[in-house]
Amino acid sequence: MRMIRKVQPPDFEELLQIEAEAFPKSQYDLGQFWNLHQTYPNTFLVDVTELINGYIVFSLEGHLISMAVRSGQRRKGIGTRLVQEASAYCADTPLLLEVRVSNLGAQEFYLALGFNFIGRAKGYYHDGEDALLMERPAALVSR
Ligand SMILES: CC(C)(COP(=O)(O)OP(=O)(O)OC[C@H]1O[C@@H](n2cnc3c(N)ncnc32)[C@H](O)[C@@H]1OP(=O)(O)O)[C@@H](O)C(=O)NCCC(=O)NCCS
């Protein structure tokens, strides 16, 4: 049975595998997962069947902090479901996120979900790469 639920510390080992595949340049480590779990106890969610298929972390103010789907499970709607779940938590708030300028696949994903480009943050990532800022207006949030 598929479900989206809050992350639990025993999930972190699987999340580390998903991270390594998803973010070769800047993956979270175990300590960072613990910190995220402490900071966002109610809004760090995982999509689970037998395995964890993906995760999303966001703030109730509508900042999408990170998300990733297991590489073998992409293009099956899991990412869309995770963003829809975040939207439901954030009610009438716009959703905001940063994405690497080189991450064209994720940009296409967010465009498909109704996000727009609203700016660029120079040198946002630790390796100096710029981030593009994307926003989904509140009016689209409940759709
Ligand atoms: C971005 C990501 C989360 C998308 O998750 P997903 O479960 O594959 O997304 P979905 O199946 O819900 O995709 C919905 C739509 O988005 C678009 N889309 C998704 N991935 C895409 C890609 N790589 N290239 C182009 N369009 C894409 C498509 O329109 C897709 O619909 P379709 O499959 O019917 O064509 C996933 O590719 C991922 O984990 N990437 C690595 C980590 C990452 O970049 N995270 C975001 C950091 S800001």
Notes on the protein architecture:
With 143 residues, the protein is an alpha+beta fold. It has a single domain (3-141), classed as Aminopeptidase (3-Layer(aba) Sandwich), CATH 3.40.630. 33% of the residues lie in helices and 29% in strands. The protein is built from five helices and seven strands. It has helices spanning 12-22, 30-39, 78-90, 104-112, 138-141, and strands at residues 3-6, 44-48, 52-58, 63-69, 95-100, 116-121, 131-136. The protein has a seven-stranded mixed sheet, sandwiched between helices. Strand 2 and strand 3 form a beta hairpin. The chain is globular and about 35 Å long. The two termini are 25 Å apart. The model has no long low-confidence stretch (mean pLDDT 94). The structure holds coenzyme A.
Concise summary:
The chain is an alpha+beta fold and 143 residues long. It has five helices and seven strands; from the N terminus they run βααβββαβαββα. It has helices at residues 12-22, 30-39, 78-90, 104-112, 138-141; strands at residues 3-6, 44-48, 52-58, 63-69, 95-100, 116-121, 131-136.
Number of strands: 7
Number of domains: 1
CATH architectural arrangement:
3-Layer(aba) Sandwich
Shape: globular
CATH superfamily: Gcn5-related N-acetyltransferase (GNAT)
Oligomer: single chain
Please report the first level of CATH classification, the CATH class.
Alpha Beta
Bound molecules: coenzyme A
Radius of gyration: 14 Å
Secondary structure: helix percent = 25-40%
Estimate the strand proportion.
25-35%
What's the tally of helices? 5
Q: Span between N and C termini?
A: 25 Å
